[in-house]
Amino acid sequence: MQWFDIVGYVGVALIVSGYFLLQTERWKSNSTRYALANATGAALIGFSLLFDFNWPSFVIECFWFVISLYGLVRNLRINRALR
What we know:
The chain has three helices and no strands. By secondary structure, it is mainly alpha-helical. The protein has one domain (about 5-80). The protein is elongated.
């Protein structure tokens, strides 16, 4: 196993952990930490793909990252407006 594989597995762990916490109602789908876990996980998986490329995986991680980033920015704006 290469170091970039470990980076990818950390990304997988973030996404799967976030999804588990969402399904067990410990996190909310509109929470900043859920969006941050998804965006970070997708970025780490995407980074690992630079070393062992796979188009379908790269495409899904790009979408996952962009959508998670959108949620993160939206949550930060809402939190600022509530202050």
